[in-house]
Design a protein that fits this description.
It contains twelve helices and 16 strands. The chain is of the alpha/beta class and 361 residues long. The strands form three sheets. The chain has a seven-stranded parallel beta sheet with strand order 3-2-1-4-5-9-6, with helices on one face. The protein has a seven-stranded mixed beta sheet with strand order 11-12-10-13-16-15-14. The structure holds NADP nicotinamide-adenine-dinucleotide phosphate (NAP). The site of NADP nicotinamide-adenine-dinucleotide phosphate has 30 residues, from helix 1 and helix 12. Its EC number is 1.2.1.38.
Length: 361
């Protein structure tokens, strides 16, 4: 069976990456692409790298134009998808790459985003360890999926195994991320001009203000919950919150995130027990890989691939576990996670249309 697909926000970075991956997916056929200021343009004029989709023309992003498809991927600025997806039929699989449906707690939405709160959908990070299983279990059969924030999923994947296994403490987490400017989208913004970025490393959203913080805390609360927890259950809600100091730094690379995330070691825990926690979490995962002891990833190792590579060390003197995680923000950080989650929801092979191999050099 071939599923008919629409992509909203197809002129942007996330939309473009969705289209690149969907063009190679054997069960998905992209039939509608929508945009905002670029509506009416030929897709190939806006996304010249997508030669195999040259027959498509961008149309307005309206519920009407997105109706009549089996699957709709949405890659719009936050606050824009909720208005539109509310009008799509319940049986359509809708995967939102924006933030509108990621947060379970409306107070978090109000504090970090503001505006209308559209409610939480099933979170699209299948590998997150939760209770006796994985977030994957909740994605089976889902028809509304919230793909993750790129920084949020990177840090959550980095730290969740240790919290889930009880070998690191959920308080006093620290994450510093080197991030590429494509994470901020294609629209013109002064801090993202080449003249501001080339030859410089530029911190932003310092001091607990970044919008991905509540999303990270939410994932880590789920990871901490004992038993086969429903993330929205009272038992899970009563798990202690993680506390995290989170600092992103824009660096001169188009794509990629390198997250150094550290946590206090639970006293008395051996280095072997720490490594076993991450090995247990990710041993069978096709896209999330723990590197051997002493090995650490580079962003260049994951470009174009739906992989997260994690290096792990125990700093005995500091009493901290150190994780270094590399992902491509546009693939595992958004479009790849969206397609992987859609595959699971539809009962397809999870890896269809996705690759573990990156582009090098
Ligand atoms: N970039 C990443 O690495 C990344 C990672 C994870 C999640 N995301 C999320 O994915 C979503 C898209 O991000 P992006 O990086 O692709 O942004 P982008 O490059 O700026 O693209 C935004 C898209 O939304 C359209 N758009 C802009 N204003 C609109 C409006 N008022 N109404 C309807 N459509 C509008 C744009 O159309 P026109 O170009 O035609 O105006 C474009 O297609 C965001 O919610 C972002 O948080 C992005």
């Amino acid at each position: 069976m071939v599923f008919s697909v629409a992509v909203a926000g197809a002129s942007g970075y996330a939309g473009g990456e969705l289209l690149r991956l969907l063009a190679g997916h054997p069960e998905f056929e992209v039939r509608t692409v929508t945009a905002h200021s670029n509506a009416g343009q030929r897709l190939i004029d806006v996304q010249p790298s997508l030669r195999s989709l040259a027959h498509l023309t961008l149309v307005d992003t309206t519920p009407q134009n997105l109706s009549g498809h089996d699957v709709v991927f949405v890659a719009l600025p936050h606050g824009k998808s909720g208005e539109i997806t509310a009008h799509l039929p319940a049986e359509t699989l809708v995967v939102d790459c924006g933030a509108d449906h990621r947060l379970v707690n409306s107070d978090d939405w109000a504090a970090f985003y503001g505006g209308d709160y559209f409610g939480a959908w099933t979170y699209g990070v299948p590998e997150l360890p939760i209770g006796a299983g994985k977030q994957r279990d909740r994605l089976v059969g889902a028809r509304r999926i919230a793909a993750p924030g790129c920084n949020a999923s990177t840090v959550a994947l980095a730290l969740a195994p240790g919290i889930h296994a009880g070998v690191i403490e959920a308080q006093d987490l620290v994450a510093v991320l080197a991030v590429g400017p494509s994470g901020a989208g294609k629209s013109l913004k002064l801090p993202n001009l080449a003249a501001e970025i080339l030859g410089s490393a530029n911190p932003y959203a310092v001091g607990g203000t970044h919008r991905h913080i509540p999303e990270i805390v939410q994932s880590l609360r789920w990871a901490a919950a004992a038993g086969p927890a429903d993330p929205t259950s009272a038992a899970c809600a009563s798990s202690p919150d993680a506390t995290i100091s989170f600092t992103p730094v824009i660096v001169p690379m188009s794509r990629g995130i390198l997250a150094t995330a550290t946590a206090r070691l639970v006293p008395g825990t051996s280095a072997a027990a720490v490594r076993a926690a991450w090995e247990d979490a990710y041993a069978d995962e096709p896209f999330v890989h723990l590197l051997p002891d002493g090995h650490f990833p580079r962003t260049a190792d994951v470009l174009g691939a739906n992989t997260a590579l994690i290096g792990l060390a125990v700093d005995e003197a500091a009493g901290r576990v150190v994780t270094i995680t590399a992902i491509d923000n546009l693939v595992k950080g958004t479009a790849g996670a969206a397609i992987q989650s859609a595959n699971i929801a539809l009962g397809l092979t999870e890896t269809l249309g996705l690759t573990m191999n990156g582009v090098a050099p």
